[in-house]
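Work Package 3 (structural annotation) set out to generate three-dimensional models for the target panel prioritized at the project kickoff. During this period the team completed the workflow that converts sequence records into discrete structure tokens, so that structures can be stored uniformly alongside our sequence database. As a representative example, we reproduce one entry of 158 residues exactly as it appears in the project archive.
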Amino acid sequence: MYIYKIILVLALLSLLVLLPQRAIVEPIKIKTHQRVVEQTIPQMIQEIAPRFGVDPKIISIVSKCESGWKVVEHDGGHGNGITGLHKATFKLYLKKYELKHNETLNYDSSYDQLKMMSYMFSIGQARQWTAYRAYMNGGTYSFYSKLLKKHFTARCKG
């Protein structure tokens, strides 16, 4: 009986590993007031960026270069999500965002990360993203990370 349970658990775990990751065009459910709206990442960008006076194209390019529009870990666990924004940086700018916009944001929400990214771009902080620097530099940007103590080259052609 015990061996059957182990086989069942292993089979279920295998299924989880083999399931495809969420496609970039798969809608994400967003709760707004009293209704749920489904949006893709490009739709979210088209909605959010203009509210901050930012070109949706640049937010789209940089976020896609950062993560391929997938929720992924960045920089040894210092960041997570579709924007590549480090959690500490998010928290630092969150205080300024809350004062200006009278709302809080959730770091674990792709929608809110895009809001924070758009806000930071609107206040001149786009250089926080190495993908932005790479894009503006013609496709590559080399730098030394004090945090990770090694050299990197970011690539972003758009």
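The mean pLDDT is 81.
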